[in-house]
Specification:
This protein has about 260 residues and is α+β, with helices and mostly antiparallel strands. The chain has a single domain, classed as Creatinase/methionine aminopeptidase superfamily (Creatine Amidinohydrolase). It has four helices and 14 strands. The strands form four sheets. A five-stranded antiparallel β-sheet has the order 7-6-8-13-14. It is globular, with a radius of gyration of 17 Å. It catalyses: Release of N-terminal amino acids, preferentially methionine, from peptides and arylamides. Monomer.
Length: about 260
């Protein structure tokens, strides 16, 4: 299913995006050495409930997961890159943490992810990983406009990641959003330009480049959800929800 939002729905989409951005930035500020991942999950729950919103994760039970996710935010640490299930772990300075959040407010979903180093002083290799995903995300957004094809976005993202020297996994990527979290079209993190669905004003897309330092192979934790690099290498993940407008793309989950 591909949804196209009407002009009357756009204010609600912007409000959802702003909420997701605000929660992520609040959790980033609170994610200091000694903070427990379960505390981050609880604080996220409180902010979602206070806003009158609904978590997209608690009851999420796709075929690739082990039952309902059961938490409010994904917390992926170091070699974990996607679907990190919060657990009893206290962060340490130098941990590379990815927070991924999807929320529905007034019937419209927004989805975003940020990666950062706890304590702010990461290795150059970690900072390069994060920078590559952020630059790839910016390239994908720059390519997003009415009349562009999904392959144009995938190609723009892949060019940045490949030039930076990172392998690219195509199992998981970006996707459409709307009244539900995961919709068509799928947006791979590499691809051929001029291919795929043609973008139209009112389309919401979650673009999400993610990489592992030296592999494109994932392994799944015993929790049935958390995906890690097969080599134990560090990882990074950046994501925004964008709205296709009449003349380009508007980022709805930009940090205030």
């Amino acid at each position: 299913m591909i949804e196209i939002l009407s002009p009357s729905e756009l204010p609600r989409a912007r409000a959802t995006g702003a909420l997701v951005a605000r929660i992520l930035q609040t959790m980033k500020a609170r994610a200091t050495a000694g903070t427990n991942l379960l505390e981050i999950d609880r604080w996220t729950r409180d902010m979602i409930v206070e806003a009158g919103a609904v978590s997209c994760y608690v009851d999420y039970a796709p075929s690739f997961g082990d039952g309902p996710f059961g938490h409010y935010i994904c917390t992926s640490v170091n070699d974990a890159v996607l679907h990190g299930k919060p657990h009893d772990y206290r962060l340490a300075d130098g941990d590379l943490l990815t927070l991924d959040l999807a929320v529905s407010l007034d019937g419209i979903v927004a989805d975003s992810a940020i990666s950062f180093v706890v304590g702010g002083r990461g290795s150059q290799a970690d900072l390069d990983l994060i920078d590559a995903t952020e630059r790839a995300l910016a390239a994908g957004i720059a390519a997003a406009r009415p009349g562009a094809r999904i392959g144009d976005l995938s190609h723009a993202i892949g060019q940045v990641l490949t030039a930076a020297g990172y392998p690219i996994n195509l199992e998981f990527g970006g996707h459409g959003v709307g009244s539900t979290m995961h919709q068509d079209p799928h947006i791979s993190n590499d691809g051929r330009p001029g291919r795929g669905y043609t973008l139209r004003p009112g389309l919401l897309l979650a673009l999400e480049p993610w990489i592992m330092a030296d592999t494109d192979e994932l392994v799944t934790d015993a929790d049935g959800w958390t995906l890690r690099s097969a080599t134990g290498a560090r990882t990074a993940h950046s994501e925004h929800t964008v709205l296709i407008t009449e003349d380009g793309a508007e980022i709805l989950t930009l940090a205030p």
